[in-house]
Amino acid sequence: MNMKPDDIERSVQQHSSAKGLPPLHQWHPELSGDMDLVITRDGQWLYQGAPIAREATVKLFSTILRREDDGHHYLVTPVEKWRIQVEDAPLLAHSLARKGEGAGQVLSLTTNVGEVLEIGPEHPLAVSQYPNSDEPRPVVYVRHGIEARLVTAAFYELADLVEEQQDNGETQYGVLSHGKFWKIGQGG
Description:
By secondary structure, the protein is mainly β. The protein has helices at residues 5-15, 55-63, 152-159; strands spanning 33-39, 45-47, 50-51, 65-67, 73-76, 81-86, 91-99, 106-111, 116-118, 125-129, 136-143, 146-150, 163-167, 170-177, 180-186. The strands form 3 sheets. It has a 6-stranded mixed β-sheet with strand order 3-2-1-6-5-4.
């Protein structure tokens, strides 16, 4: 059976309330199969090799996407679960915004589907490196195992706000948001 994006969209709309995010944590259907849907590293959503033209479809799919313990990404509805391919993080984060200063500072990013995420306990920031590379991989947690990778410009904006802290004699570099120091690197 070959599921199409429009079919998934209809199913989610039938089983969701009009406001807020779908109750994805309550949906646990059996695997329906693999869908020919790829989210590329640069944030494109390709169905059967072609970009999904409707922005509303991509936004909806971002709300029913989860990454499970097996490391795979799935589009989940109350009655179906489709495995898809994700080249890196499924979402991108851009447009760093800053409110307040010092311990009261709150940093936020906007995803490529328009969701604003405040760096904090609900949306922690983590900076690792790509395998076999020194290239940083800055991400902010979204929900259900999903991450949004900071685009280069947002990472540079974040770097402009970096502060130093000492931890057991080591210099740590990071940013403050929601009263917490979010480490993005350390001194050599």
